[in-house]
Amino acid sequence: MPNHDDMDAPVTLRTVRAFEQKVDLRLEKVEQRFEKVDQQFEKVEQQFAEVREQFVEVKTELAALRRDVAQLPVDLARHANAISEQLRSDIRALRDVEPGSTAELQTLPRRVAKLEERVFAPSPPAARAGRKRS
């Protein structure tokens, strides 16, 4: 068996080829590791690209939401004005049902009070006395 620590020993072709095979095997293992690392980096880059796309989509949606929120007060004011105008129109229509109805509308509280007096007034005592209780 050759002594590997002896620097003066002659180097044979077989020794060189054996060493070369060991180096080649190690280099192949290193290349395989690099390939795995490259594949992992490619996966990470792909995931990062997907996250970036999602971020851009979310950013676009957020900008649209901000525009919508900024428009809300304007829309609400427009709807409130439309409702108010419709209410005024309905009240005018009630007043203008027939000529002279404005006067009738003004006397409405007095007429309602008169009706309430008749409907909700207590019964006369004579009518109560004539009833028999069972």
Question: What report would you give on this structure?
Answer:
There is one protein chain. The protein is an all-alpha fold. Helix content is 80%, strand content 0%. It is built from four helices and no strands. It is rod-shaped.
Number of helical stretches of at least 4 residues:
4
Average predicted local confidence, pLDDT? 85
| Strand content range | under 5%
Strands, total number = 0
Q: Percent helix among the residues?
A: over 70%
Radius of gyration, in Å, reads 50 Å
Instruction: Tell me the overall shape.
Output: rod-shaped
Assembly of the depicted chains: single chain
Order of helices and strands: HHHH
The CA-CA distance between the termini, in Å, is 135 Å
| Coarse structural class | mainly alpha
Main sheet attributes: strand count, strand direction, barrel closure: none
Uncertain runs with pLDDT below 50, 5 residues or more?
Answer: none
Layout: helices, strands, pairs:
Elements lengths: L12 H83 L5 H6 L1 H13 L4 H5 L5
Write a short abstract of this structure.
Helix content is 80%, strand content 0%. It has helices at residues 13-95, 101-106, 108-120, 125-129.
List keywords for this structure.
134 residues; mainly alpha; 4 helices
